[in-house]
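Weekly structure sync, notes
Attendees: PL (lead), two postdocs, one rotation student
Agenda item 3: pending single-chain targets
PL asked that the sequence for the first pending target be pasted directly into the notes so everyone works from the same version. It is reproduced below exactly as submitted, 320 residues in total.
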Amino acid sequence: MDTLLDATATARLLPPIALADEIEALLHDPAVQVPERLVQPLPGGGSLFVMPALDAHIAITKLITFTPANAGTPRPAIQGDVVVFDSATGERRLVLDGPTVTARRTAAVSLLAARRLAPRPEGPLLIVGAGAQGLSHLEAFQAGLPVREVLVASRRRESAQALVDHARSLGLKAEVVPDPDEALPRCSLVVTCTPASGAVLRARPSRGTFIAAVGSFTPRMVELDAQLCRDVAADGTVVVDTPDAAHEAGDLLQAGLDVASFPSLRDVVHGRVRARGPVLFKSCGWAGWDLAAARAAMKGIGVNSAARRAFEASGFEARR
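Predicted structure, written out during the meeting:
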């Protein structure tokens, strides 16, 4: 028997702090295996992503489509599922909502990086991009860091205002800012989470700044100005989420940097990185992060246990 979860039920199983802790635990687990993901171009400019991963107990595949043309329409840019199997029996145990997993685990990865690398984790926090990733990063940073003030910049003021309103509902001081470069000197935490169709941040960050750039994940996509990336590489610290960023991190590749020379988040959690100056954390995504989300969800739902029965009795909305 398995459980098919909608976006609301999936989100309930992936609280930011617990998920960040699970991601850190995964980076210490020698049983984890993550084959290279398959990215298949689709007619119309979209892509199909097939992302498997496994550990000693479960195997997962994230199967999603990414359709940039859906931006600004009622259809989400990311659609699909994360399917979780029991490694020993081969039985399907969970089907999680793919876009929710993507948003939650990406923000939790950024949270883990900020916990370890941010010189001034209290903020203020500048979020550039007010979509699903902007929302998930707001909630993750508010939950896991001592942030009290948030500034939001977006191409659409309505989206920025909606995210500001949500921040205020969480008890934060928040405002919309028209120019992220002008706001940058005020902020020690920055997240860029845009469609990555052009540079949205150009100003040189101060030495106490931590930037998590999560919007671009192909060589052609970019959010950060090339000179900004080169300046941080020369005078600060650049960390990538995984070595796969060597052929995916468009911001760094377009800046002409040797991405393979930068340490990864695994190096950080194993104590092999000492940050200096401004910090740029470049996140491109990895099926290992989805595996961590599946592990957290399995623990949260208590599969084959009283916890699962209690969860099912709580009235979650399952997809049928």
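Discussion points:
- The longest helix spans residues 98-117.
- The longest strand covers residues 58-66.
Action: rotation student to compare against the earlier draft before next sync.
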